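Table 4 source record.
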Amino acid sequence: MAILIVSIMLLYQPLRTRFRRFIDRRFYGIDIDYEEANRLEVLSGRTRLAPQKPLSRFGEYEELRWLGRGGMGEVFRAKHPILERDVAIKLLAKAHKFDKKVQERFTREAQALAKLNHPHIIKLHDFGEESGQSFMVMEYIDGEELRDRLQKGERLPLEEVLKIVGPLASALDHVHQHGIIHRDIKPNNVMLERNPSEPSEPRVILMDFGIARIHSMETLTEAGGEAILGTLSYIPPEQVKGDKNIDGRADLYSLACMVYRMLTGQMPFVQKDPISIVMAHLMHIPPSPKLYAPELPEYVAEAILKALSKEPKDRFATVGEFFEAIKGETPALETLDFGAANSLFTDLDKLL
């Protein structure tokens, strides 16, 4: 009878989701609202829908041109009339004016950027409130998101990937040295700025510190209380579990997911729904990148799999070390054999 009841629950989606969350809490110590997580992931990319009321001026800034909309608000290109400098203005949506958690996230992003000074991290020029609307002013980047390049469906050659990962590794090590964890590394948050003198070598810019954790500021160590934030396809296991002691190795895991995607054209975990993606991050070992890109050097595949280890202690200590490894400038890693671990969870995953 118990098996029959469970079978009915798994066939009926609302009950299946409820049962899945029960298993999460009971056996894995996590609690994720998968429907909300999926909705936020969709909102995390800037949409192409123009604002209902176009703005032409905001404060002292003129010539506003709408760029896109994200989960917290809208982004405009504008010009400072005196400095004659193009900037990007991020406006917190008025709907969030009285949402304390969203306000804290917006403030946290500005505080994180204010602590950083790196050529491959977007620069903050100003932050404040104008006519009751919170805003931040950042440098304007003329280029494309890494996501746009990857959406073309092509694998990137190793040489090109190294040119992207090198600056990101330097930027992330700088971030971590200042006690900040980005927590949302993904192609949407990496800009490739056009370089007229060297079109094949764009300036790589790390963006969007909206859910960053600042270790040195006790009141801002949690991005939304117990909420699990991040993009599911790139989220590290410890972030899924809500670990309060995550460090830079969480960003390393997300970066390794992104490198895997760039080199193979596939995500490490190809699943059909948010539940399966989360469980894969927690329990599954990804296939070797060489399965999709046989021409990759063995040391590159091994370095990526090491960076995707479930336990932070089994990864590289810094993002810079990971970059050195995929360049082939560190000693060869031991071959990783996770076949037994993969098969151990297969039946449970099919059931849930």
